[in-house]
């Protein structure tokens, strides 16, 4: 089985949407990525950090999905990263109510020895220096390195972000972030500029409006599945990235054509994530549901104009 | 050849975008629809009205595309409908600077005798009573009636709009209008409610984010082609509708499966419309360019996950 190495935050989230609010629940990029990737045939490991306030129940939830957590450091007396957000009525925008870095503040990632030869590395949203450090520790060159980041690092650590971006194959960011990073409003132009920064493949996530994959002059588009109700968008982007990286890891095929399939798998998994609060839906999701909804993506997008 | 009857405004538009501004140029729903539909093998006619200030050059431009203008009334001493708009920097929103109804104010449509048996009727954006009057004049039941409308009529003539909506097969509106008409934020729920008002098929246009086609529990999505630059979005929705109605007219197939193809054709033609000011690009567009870009739509959306 191929190996997927995942780095990203592990967090407590407190979320409020028009449909309700949660206490502190499992959150962070790495769990969403790991849960999503677990629907593929692969070995995965998470590199991250939590405090000793992090419940065994959440650790079990990850190991139950065969996610290796030997690289998940538990800091004695430390507090786990905490994020709290309030979504507006349209669920397309949110206010961050609290960000307490806690143990994430001076995190030094340690890649488990048996994942230093991972086939695919998924660098989830974290400080670019942490992302770089993970790449430094790899003993064999991964077949594919995927990086997700956000505007926060463009504001606070742009030089470090640009350094790590040079070293990756695929970047996944949202439309506003692509505009910020490139200085171009047109996403086509933005993607070309970002390709010039290093990554040969640029994935631009547009939330309910789907995702675009750019490579040289080629472009592919995956819609988001139109849903009756989006309950909580938290983690949808990470779930998308996890599905993308997970499928690539399983299939061992890093061609543009196969990335099209990977983007559809990512969109498919993300469409479940938003149906309940936090990771709830991803935890009770069954493989047969995943396969069945893939058929909906086919019906949604496939047409038969003969050319 | 099958017949497509088009009703809609014929106008002078004055447009300002971040890329420049125009004097009064050819505008209105009917010319955009007619030019777009002219890329298919069909007979078309426009029912509309202009003043005698309307230049022969614009009439020629329509007849050069084999569009029958015997139903285009020219009011002696009348002034043609005038619209002026200013697009904001993102081109997704605009301010209307002027709307002078002029001869459109008390327009009584007259369907040419040889189009009273049209196969497809495209009711472009106009007062719902004008749209109803066109349907009243049909001598045979069209295979398909498509209606485009806008929020203005929902605000000012909702009862009349709901009356004509009962009589049509396909409605094309944008996302905000679908929300206004249905009272539902979710487009899936909005489409279901609108289907309950009459039309079995609901097309929701999302501009640069593509278009959705709903029918019972089924849904199809056509992306907009990602473009380096959108120059002027004016008429894109009408061009989309014209491509949709034109392809259906040519193919004589009103199945949901064929409507998927029609939506792709509409999106394809609309992607050209926005490349220049007003109708300029649609006038110099060649059929081989249209076919070539259809291939891009295939590459953009088709994937090969085996299920």
Automatic annotation (TrEMBL), chains A, B:
User: Where are the coiled-coil regions?
Assistant: none
Among its keywords, does the record have Membrane?
A: no
Q: Which SUPFAM superfamilies match?
A: Ribokinase-like
Q: GO molecular function terms here?
A: kinase activity
List the keywords (alphabetical). Kinase, Transferase
Keyword Transferase set for record: yes
Q: Which residues form the Carbohydrate kinase PfkB domain?
A: 26-281
| PROSITE patterns found in the cross-reference section | PFKB_KINASES_2
Q: Which Pfam families match?
A: PfkB
> What protein am I looking at?
PfkB family carbohydrate kinase
């Amino acid at each position: 089985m191929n190996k997927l190495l995942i780095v990203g935050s592990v967090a407590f989230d407190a979320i409020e949407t028009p449909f309700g609010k949660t206490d502190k629940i499992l959150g962070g990029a790495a769990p969403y990525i790991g849960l999503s990737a677990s629907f593929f045939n692969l070995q995965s490991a998470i590199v991250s950090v939590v405090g000793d306030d992090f419940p065994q129940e959440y650790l079990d939830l990850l190991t139950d999905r065969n996610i290796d957590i030997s690289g998940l450091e538990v800091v004695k007396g430390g507090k786990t990263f905490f994020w709290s957000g309030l979504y507006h009525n349209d669920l397309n925008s949110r206010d961050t109510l609290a960000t307490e870095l806690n143990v994430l503040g001076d995190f030094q990632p340690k890649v488990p020895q048996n994942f230093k030869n991972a086939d695919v590395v998924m660098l989830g949203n974290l400080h670019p220096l942490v992302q770089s450090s993970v790449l430094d520790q790899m003993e064999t060159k991964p077949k594919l390195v995927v990086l997700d980041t956000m505007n926060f690092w463009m504001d606070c650590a742009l030089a470090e972000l640009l350094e790590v971006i040079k070293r990756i194959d695929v970047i996944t960011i949202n439309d506003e972030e692509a505009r910020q990073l490139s200085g171009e409003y047109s996403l086509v132009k933005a993607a070309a500029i970002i390709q010039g920064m290093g990554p040969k493949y640029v994935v631009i996530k547009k939330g309910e409006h789907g995702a675009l994959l750019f490579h040289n002059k080629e472009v592919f588009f995956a819609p988001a599945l139109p849903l009756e109700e989006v309950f909580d968008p938290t983690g949808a982007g990470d779930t998308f990235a996890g599905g993308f990286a997970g499928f690539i890891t399983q299939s061992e095929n890093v061609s543009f054509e196969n990335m099209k399939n990977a983007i559809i798998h990512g969109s498919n998994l993300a469409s479940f994530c938003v149906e309940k609060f936090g990771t709830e839906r991803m935890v009770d999701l069954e493989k047969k549901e995943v396969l069945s909804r893939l058929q909906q993506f086919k019906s949604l997008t496939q047409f038969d104009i003969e050319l």
